[in-house]
Amino acid sequence: MTSAVERPSSGSLSSLSGGPSADPAELARVFDLVAATVRTAYVGREETVRLALCCLMAEGHLLVEDFPGLGKTTLAKALARSLGLGFGRVQFTADLLPADITGAVVIDRDTKLLAFRPGPIFTNVLVADELNRASPKAQSALLEAMEERQVSVDGTSHFLPRPFMVVATQNPYDAAGTFPLPHSQLDRFLLRLDIGYPDRALEDELLASAESRPLPEDLPVVAGEGFLESFARAVQHAHVAGEVRGYILDLVRATRGHPELAVGASPRAALAVLRAAAAVAVAAGRGFVTPDDVKQVGPAALAHRVVLHPVAPSTAPAVIGEILNRVPVPVARGRA
Question: Which helix (H) or strand (E) holds 207?
């Protein structure tokens, strides 16, 4: 099946490959094109696709905690393919070793010398499927890679390709034989998404297009390195007014004194909200962040970074939602 979305002209993409900045409207147009291309292979909510894509554009990592069979791997593979990125997948199990992820030093058959053999982590988009089923030792193999964009084997550091994104999944309802992710590792993920069951219309679309829908690996590459670099640069230089920064600080600080939370959001959480909101702003064709951008990413950026009291009656997303509803929203003034 041929993709129904329009390919961008070569001139459009080449205009995003250099220079100090790119036209915000053009970045938003190509972003929409990539999102539309992904949705030809992945049948799901548009907001899920856009937030996952924003996570990649902001050079962050994504945690998806939901039921099996909801298309998590399809979404990650479609994102990678539409942007011309490498893709890898590791099924995490209790007997997985760190070397199975990062690679190992082995004897080269031809030279008879020790040589490093890269593991599956050396790719652009890595799906860490059912991450909480691996031992803490195997889980920790991802920590350095996610934070430093490198892995160390036998005292030697090996840099990962850029961009590098981990899409980790875990099933929260089948806890037998799992090792819950420690708070320090959860904090490495820029966003956490709950895909959820599709509504009836989406599920009907899924059934109706089962035979004609393209596979993720058959999607066209509609944007490449130039677009990724320009978008990341725009995220870094997005204007954040003092009132918007204050709003982020009010949200984060409200988690630290909330009666249902044992551990509130860290300063790194505030930076995560800021970075994710900037990506949402750029995707909308703006060079500045608004309070609405912050509210859009707030639950996905904060809920996994807080710890509930053992007897708290609510869930973490519900607490974050209550805080977002309670904290006053400043009036956006645009660029100062």
Answer: helix 200-208
Q: Where are the domains of the chain?
A: 22-217, 238-336
Strand, coil or helix: 74: helix
At 211, phi and psi to the nearest 5? -90, -20
Nearest to 289 by CA among 235, 253, 326: 235
List the CATH code of the domain at 238-336. Answer: 1.10.8.80
Domain 22-217 has CATH 1.10.260.40: no
Per residue in 51-80, pLDDT (tens digit) is: 999 999 999 999 998 777 888 889 999 999
Per-position DSSP letters for 17-46, written without gaps between them: SSSS---HHHHHHHHHHHHHHHHHH--S-H
**Closest residue by Cα to residue 197 from 64, 25, 82, 44:** 44
pTM given for the model: 0.86
308 beta partners: 261
Computed on alpha carbons and rounded to an integer, the radius of gyration of the chain in Å comes to 20
